[in-house]
Known about the structure:
604 residues; alpha+beta; Methylamine Dehydrogenase, Chain H; five-stranded antiparallel β-sheet; 11 helices; 32 strands; 14% helix; globular; binds 2-acetamido-2-deoxy-beta-D-glucopyranose; transmembrane helix; MitoProcess-Associated
Amino acid sequence: MSAFKVAMRGTPLACRALRPTTTPVRLQSLRYASSQGGGKKQGGGAGKFLGGMAAALLGAGAFVAFWPATQKEVAKPAQARIEYEKARPRPESKEDNRDLISSQHLQVKKSWEDPGVYAWGSNEGRVAAPDLTDSAIKTPRRIKYFDGQLLRDIKLDREFGAAITEKGDLVQWGTAFSKEDPQPKPTLKGKDLTKLAISRDRILALGKNGTVYSIPVSGSDQASAAKTESSSWTSFWSSPSSASYRKIQIPSLGWGEGIADIASGLEHALILTTKGRVFSAASSTSDYPSKGQLGIPGLTWTTRPQGPYDAPHEISTLKGFNIIQVAAGDFHSLALEKAGRVFVFGDNTSGQLGFEAEREIPYVDGPIPLPFSKIYAGTAQVPRVTSIGAGGNNSFFTVEATKVASQSGQSDTSVALAPARDLGRVTADTWATGAGIYGSLGNGKWTHVTLGPTKIKPLSGLYEWDEHTKSIVPIRLARLSIGTTHAAAVMANETSVGATTTSSENDINWGADVLFWGGNEHYQLGTGKRNNVNTPMYIGPLDGGLGMNSRAVRVRSTGCRSHREPRHDLDPTARAERLAWNRGSSADASSLLFTLEHETDSEK
Ligand SMILES: *[C@@H]1O[C@H](CO)[C@@H](O)[C@H](O)[C@H]1NC(C)=O
Ligand SMILES: *[C@@H]1O[C@H](CO)[C@@H](O)[C@H](O)[C@H]1NC(C)=O
Ligand SMILES: *[C@@H]1O[C@H](CO)[C@@H](O)[C@H](O)[C@H]1NC(C)=O
Ligand SMILES: CC(=O)N[C@H]1CO[C@H](CO)[C@@H](O)[C@@H]1O
C-alpha cells in the first residue's frame, strides 16, 4: 500500500499539493515513525515518500523531521524543530520563487554553477579536509582544492585520497601521500585516466585506452621507486614521469579486447576485459593475498609463477561466462554475469560470500555461484542480479525479480494471491551479506555475521509513478558506494531537472535520493553525530542551511538553465552529464561530488 502512495511522490500534483503547512509535516513524521516501529511494514516506502516530499516541504523548513530515519535515533515527532519561514520579501522572479519553495531546486542550481567535492568523516590522515587538522569532519564540507572542478573519479582511504580530474590527471593527498605536505597535488599526468581503485599502499588507475597503471600511494616511494622496490619491479619501470608508476600488463588480450573496469580490495585487484574475462592480481606491496580473493585455487606467495608478483592471472573458472561487473571487498571478490548470476570467492569469515550455513569454511579460493533462485524459492518470482557492490567485509546485490506463474505446479499460495495482471511485474530489491555489527547490512539489525543474504527492506520493493509512461515503475538503485563499515546508495529514478523560464513557477528541480548507513564512529555518515545507523537514512543538506535531505543531481548539460550560466567548457569527449553521489569510501570518510560520467566502450 505504502508503495503506491510512494508512487505519487514524483508527480507535480504531489508537489503542488504539499504546500508548506503544519499538518502534512506532522502527519508524515508520525507516519514515518510508526512504520519504523512496526518493523515489518514498508518503513523504506514511507521513508522514500517522505524523502520525495522533502522537495516540496522545504519551504516549511521542517527538515528535522528527517533525522528519525534510523531506529537508533528515533526522533519524537513532537521534538521536530519546525521552523516557519520568517516573512520573506516577495520573490521577484520565477527563479526566486523556486529557490524559496525548494532548497532542492537551489541545490541543483548550485551544483551546476559551482561544482566541487564535499567530504566528511575521519580526518586523521588529512583526507576529508587537507587544510584542517581536526581529527574528524562531522558534516559535508567542501575540499577547496576541487572547487569549480568536475572529477572523473575519487576514492578516499583513511590516510590518503586520490582523484582523477576532468582532464584525466591523478591528484593525490593525505598523510600517507606526504606527511610533510598532505595537500592535494597532481601526480601522474597526461595519461587520460578514467577510473581509480585503491589498495593498502598502491593506487590502480585505468586509462581511457585501457592501460592499467599501478602507482605507490606514498609520494616518497614515487620519488625513489626504483630503489625501494626490488629488482623484480625494475624491468617494468616505465620512462620517468612526475610519479613513478608501473603498467600492469594483461596477458593474452584478444583482438579488439580492452580493459573495461578495475576493482580492488586491500591486497588484490580484479580486472575486467571488454570481452567479459576476469583477471586478478596482487595489488599491495605489503601482503600477498592469502584468503582466496584471487579466485585461483593454489595460487599463493610461494607457488606464484616467476616474474612480477603483481602480474595478473586469468580466473579460468570464469572462462566462458560473460562477466559484466566485478567488485572487491577488503579480502573478497564478486563477479556478475550478464545473465544475472553472481560468483563469489575469497574471505567468508563474516559470511560476506552469502552462503547459507552448511559448513564453516573461512574462505573459498575459486569462484562459486551464489544461488539467488534458492533465496527467491516459493515467491513465484524469478530473480536476476543486476549489480554488485563490496567493501570491507560486506557484499551487496541489487536484484530484479519478475513475477511468474508457478513453475513447479505445486500449491504455491503466492501464485493464487497474484492476480494475472501482476504477472511480469518487476520488483527491484537490494540484498546485503557479511559483517553487520556496525549496521552496514542496512537491515535494521546489529549482527556479527550473516548466514545468507538479508534484504535491505527500505531499498527494496519500491515503486513510483512514471509521468512519461503513466505507469507504476520500480525504483531501482543507481549506485552503491561501500566503505569499510559504512555504505551509501543513490536511488535511480524520477528526477526533475527541466524547470525553465516558461514553465510554471512551481516547477522545481530535484535530484535523486542519497541514503547512508553503517559505521559512524568517524562521522563518516555525515549526520553530525557518531552513532552507528543500521538502516538507510538521509543526511542534511550540503552547506547546511535550510534544506531537507541528501539528493544527488543528475542532469544533461542541455537541461541546465539558471541565472548564472553553468560551465560550458566540459570535456567534449565526455557525455555531458553531471552527477553527485557518494563514491569511493574505502575507509572512514565519505565524499559527494559533482562529476563527469564517461562513456566507455563497455557501456555501449
Ligand atoms: C595509452 O595512452 C597512454 C598515454 O595516454 C600511452 O602512453 C600508451 O602508450 C597508450 N597505450 C595504448 C595501448 O594505446
Ligand atoms: C560462509 O560463512 C558463513 C558464516 O560463517 C557460514 O555459515 C557459511 O557456511 C560459509 N560459507 C561457505 C561457503 O563457506
Ligand atoms: C574483516 O575481516 C578481517 C579478517 O577476515 C578482519 O581482520 C577485519 O577486522 C574485519 N573488518 C571488519 C571491519 O569487520
Ligand atoms: C534506472 C531506471 O530505473 N530508469 C528508469 C526510469 O524511468 C524511465 C521511465 O521514465 C525508465 O525508462 C528508466 O528505465
